[in-house]
Amino acid sequence: MNNHNNPNKLFWKNKKVLLTGHNGFKGMWLLIWLHYLGAEVWGYALEAENNIGMYQDIIKNLNFSKFHDFIGDINDFDCLKSYIKEINPDIVIHLAAQPLVTDSYLKPLETWQTNVMGTINLIESLRLINSKSSVLIITTDKVYKNNEWDFGYRESDVLGGHDPYSSSKASVELLVQSWRSSFCTSSNTSVSSNLKIATARSGNVLGGGDLSQNRIVPDAIRALSKNEIINIRNPNATRPWQHVLEPICGYLLLCERLNSGNKKYCQAFNFGPNLKSNKKVSELVDKILEYWDGSWKSNENPGSFHEANYLHLNSDKAFKLLNWSSRWDFDKTIKKTINWYKETSLAENFYQNCLKDIESYIFDD
User: Fold this and answer.
1) pTM score > 0.90 for this model?
2) C or N terminus of the chain, fewer CB within 10 Å?
3) Which residues have a Cβ under 8 Å from the Cβ of 92 and sit 6 or more positions away?
4) 92 to each of 266, 308, 331, how far by Cα in Å?
């Protein structure tokens, strides 16, 4: 056993967990880990689209007494409130969102509606039923006003966001801060103080099962599987690359602390990789090609939408308060990710290969 802090199975056993966005990329990995821990998971999401085969493979491997699959829109307040009232969850992990920067330029209204109002619908539903819940809202590393600094952003740094996606997530951070002050204080006896709410900001996550468009790893995998050249739109952009299991582990640890009732955990937390994992997109693709033969070319378009050139998170708070730190370095992250795609038939062995990586992560193999 390693010296890292892992989620506690005794804590999670039979906990009722509402997981929104459970059939998305990060949501599916979290669903599998929660099932492994013995939690009772109640999912709430739109219909799975491009990952339907993977999601169906997960479903057939779950204990149905421990999993409830519900198709719904977080923009439908009445539906969401009714579902939450049925569950009365112990823990809520909110992933449902419009998650892509590129799509936010094409669908700004949908992005703001889903990311901001969808979050309001969730926590207002919890408030109205007076739920005693620990709530974790997932945002992004892109919530910070990007000054192209060469050092990591801390949770206390100024929020911002150039594009609709980033600004919508920064707005969620402000929303949660306001909500805690307005509705989660024991000093105000006219409102509920049962909710313990935190937010989590993670880096650029990698891992098997991501089929999104305009993300570098799935775009690279699609090209390599067809023996095509990988097109890169921003090769010199630097990002905090990390395996999807890194922030998920942090989310689970933070939920455990929130459940203790200690208000010091009701704040924002960064979950980013170590400094050496901050690499250029070109370096990421070069590393991918060490495990899968191919080539790439730059496809930069000066007239395209704005993207930050440099992003990096400081995760000292997560280390100090949660004993969380990144454990897979850049090389191992890429190797695990590419091997997953090589070994996995997306409609057959998604669940087993994800579970294998989860156990490898827990035991630091």
Assistant:
1) yes
2) N
3) 17, 18, 20, 122, 126, 133, 134, 135, 136
4) 14, 31, 33
